[in-house]
């Protein structure tokens, strides 16, 4: 095995960071001497790595692309880390990570791997696609195709689809409670569409209060950037209109307690996501999963087979309210979908399969 530097630009934990830590952890347990993780900023990623005893370094020189002097200092530090640790493969997550590491390791004899988790159609992604890379990994066929269509000019590279792994698929039946428990999980960003669900529930509360009384809703996630904090205030205002039905919880490293105490996951993304790790995790825990009928999540989410799909992007609030009302009334008749989702994840999306595929791509370098 070649010594690999896993790079996380963010200190907070989102889907991309979670997968990077999983891969680094699995690789570390196969060969402890071949793994090192680099984070650009301190945060939960660093503390989680420490708990797992995975070798890691957090940059001492913080930087921003708009500040040339700070960027140069950080580049020197990164080059020193790569050189002193005899790194052979640099595995970066997201466009920002690939772009920074390409600049920092320019002229060095390292192989570059970019795990593209999405989104893929932004300016930063287009710029990053022009930098040398040996392999690009994608979490779904949808994301690979979107990447190629969005970046007509890109550095030639080998491309692989990596099925994401679910740490410990849980196969059990949820206990029936007095309320139907909805959960929405993800960064508190407008593109996630959480406000649309809350607005539909406001309509439901007015039109059919008896049905509304049968549910509660938890929103699990953080607001890390200024625009997300503004969006969080919007969600809080909507939640106040719904009374005690809605509860906000911070992101948790161990999500098992959230999944085991929920019945339905709704992922109302207004933009197609690369894969939807949360969808797969929820399926493995036996939840009924509701997601968009577009994006990479459709790789595992088939309407009326492994869950339910809905066009959150183009549908009106009233149409979503009708959909949710029907879902609440008919939930008990949808248990087969939950079983199908569990089976799909348990068979095809395991950590063992994921790390095998990733290490195989390293061997091709």
Task: Provide structural commentary.
With about 375 residues, the chain is α/β, with parallel strands linked by helices. The chain has 2 domains: about 180 residues, Glycogen Phosphorylase B (Rossmann fold); about 170 residues, 3-Layer(aba) Sandwich (Rossmann fold), CATH 3.40.50.2000. The chain has a 7-stranded parallel beta sheet. α1 crosses α14 and α3 packs across α4. The radius of gyration is 21 Å and the shape is globular. About 45% of the residues are buried.
Topology:
Blueprint: E1 4-8, H1 15-30, E2 35-39, H2 44-51, E3 56-58, H3 68-84, E4 89-93, H4 94-104, E5 111-116, H5 123-128, E6 135-138, H6 141-150, E7 158-161, E8 180-185, H7 194-207, H8 209-212, E9 215-220, H9 226-241, E10 246-249, H10 256-260, E11 264-266, H11 277-284, E12 288-292, E13 308-310, H12 317-330, H13 335-348, H14 351-363
Parallel strand pairs: 1-2, 1-4, 2-3, 4-5, 5-6, 6-7, 8-9, 8-11, 9-10, 11-12, 12-13
Task: Look at the structure and give the CATH class of the largest domain.
Answer: Alpha Beta
| Number of helical segments with 4 or more residues | 14
Task: Report the helical percentage.
Answer: 40-55%
Terminal Cα span: 11 Å
Rg (C-alpha, Å) = 21 Å
List low-confidence stretches.
none
SSE string, helices as H and strands as E? EHEHEHEHEHEHEEHHEHEHEHEEHHH
Strand content: 15-25%
């Amino acid at each position: 095995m070649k010594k690999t530097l896993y790079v996380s630009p963010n200190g907070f934990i989102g889907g991309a960071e979670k997968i990077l830590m999983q891969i680094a952890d699995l690789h570390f347990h196969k060969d402890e001497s071949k793994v090192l993780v680099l984070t650009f900023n301190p945060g939960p990623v660093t503390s989680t790595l420490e708990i797992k005893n995975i070798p890691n370094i957090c940059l001492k020189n913080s930087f921003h692309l708009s500040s040339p002097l700070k960027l140069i200092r950080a580049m020197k530090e990164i080059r020193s880390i790569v050189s002193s640790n005899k790194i052979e493969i640099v595995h970066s997550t997201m466009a920002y990570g690939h772009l920074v590491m390409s600049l920092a390791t320019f002229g060095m004899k390292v192989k570059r791997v970019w795990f593209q988790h999405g989104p893929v159609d932004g300016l930063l992604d287009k710029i990053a696609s022009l930098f040398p890379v040996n392999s690009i990994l994608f979490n779904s066929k949808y994301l690979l195709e979107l990447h190629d269509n969005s970046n007509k000019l890109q550095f030639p590279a080998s491309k692989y689809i990596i099925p994401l792994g679910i740490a410990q698929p849980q196969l059990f039946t949820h206990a029936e409670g007095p309320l139907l428990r909805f959960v929405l999980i993800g960064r508190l960003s407008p593109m996630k569409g959480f406000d649309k669900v809350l607005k539909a529930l406001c309509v439901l509360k007015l039109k059919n209060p008896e049905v509304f009384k049968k549910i509660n809703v938890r929103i699990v996630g953080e607001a890390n950037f200024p625009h997300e904090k503004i969006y969080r205030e919007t969600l809080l205002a909507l939640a106040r209109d719904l009374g005690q039905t809605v509860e906000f919880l911070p992101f948790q490293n161990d999500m098992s307690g959230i999944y085991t105490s929920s019945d339905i996951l709704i992922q109302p993304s207004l933009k197609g996501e690369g894969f939807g790790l949360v969808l797969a995790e929820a399926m493995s825990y036996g939840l009924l999963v509701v997601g968009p009928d577009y994006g990479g999540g459709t790789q595992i989410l088939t309407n009326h087979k492994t869950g339910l799909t809905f066009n959150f992007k183009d549908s009106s609030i009233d149409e979503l309210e009708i959909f949710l009302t029907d879902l609440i009334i008919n939930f008990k008749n949808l248990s087969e979908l939950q079983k199908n989702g569990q089976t799909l994840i348990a068979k095809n999306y395991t950590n063992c399969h994921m790390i095998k595929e990733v290490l195989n791509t390293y061997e091709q370098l």
